[in-house]
Predict the structure.
Amino acid sequence: MGTPSLGTRTLADGTVRFRVQQRVNGRPQQKTFVHVEGAKQFRALAGRVGWEHAVAVLEARARESSMPTLREWVVQYLDADSGMLTGVEDGTRDDYQRAAERSFLQVLGDMPVDAITKADVGRWVTWQEKQLTQATKKPVSMKTVQNYHSILSAAMRVAVEHKLRNDNPAWKTRITRGEKRDGVFLSADEFATILALAPARYEGLLLFLAGTGCRWGEATALTWDRVDLDSSPPTVRIDRAWKRAPRGGSILKQPKSKRSKRTVSMSADVAHALGTPGDPEELVFPSRTGRAINHRSFRSNVWIPLIARAQDPELCLEAGVRPLKKSPNPHDLRHTHASWLIASGVPLPFVQARLGHESITTTVNTYGHLQPDAHQQMSDAIGATLSGVRPLRRALNGPGDKVT
């Protein structure tokens, strides 16, 4: 899809008009504007979503000049003072706004709220699924598209409640089922390889993440007044986590959900790895400057080089460990912790409580397939139920009878 050209045309009376042109299916198309800003906006929109859809947007705006555009409505919907979206922190509102700007507002943002149809939403989904991520240069994941769609659907649902339209055009939109990244589960030996090659100053943090299953934001927010090394077993109290601040950076807030406030026990090795206790308000795992460790910096500067070393046969041979064949990310240490618990026979409700999942459904959907001997237990149960069925049928029919 090429970018339309922008030129000028001078009328007989000397008035200048601004013309946007593009060849569509072999035929030249054009739109003329009085103001250059309108021409530039139309040119940019046509370059993103195609000429025909841009024209539809332009015509819809002309018909519904008093109706807010979707972009205007989303800003109002996400504004804390509007009261439309409650129970959401300011940082999350900013995240939603940024997500909207890089997704559906790119295609639908200039359309009046009541002019958007299911077909328009479908066109956005088709466009979105073709976009590439900056990091991997691969199409955005199905989960990401679903998250974008959830914001759009919620905003349109509230538009219906406010009588701006009669229905929600985003309701039940089908998202193409793409490839979802599965969690990486490490064995104890595989984690030992990572730990053996990790920088010494991060050994305690990595052992804590794998040994407790805490989220990154919870672990890096932990202070010494939340640690009880004298209890048996030693415990930590998880009641705070780093969240995104409204204007960038991070701020301490309550953890992800009500159940995320919890007490987590530690093994002796994990407790010992915390090191010497500091002042009550000091972070247990500070950065070199004493502040919280930034996840993005840690991932790029520490984790990715660490995994590369753990996958290097020569370095692993020198360290006396087996090379890592997997490519985990830091969050996979949480998955790994859960897999170790389940492999040891810990019931899923206990795993749910330890991980701080709000719903047991999350635990079951994520880790239910890891339950030890689950297939054997189910086959044994059905086998016991059906154990007398075949002999009974043979007795009724006789040994030489054919069943028709």
User: Anything to note?
Assistant: Residues 1-63 form one domain. The chain has 18 helices and eight strands.
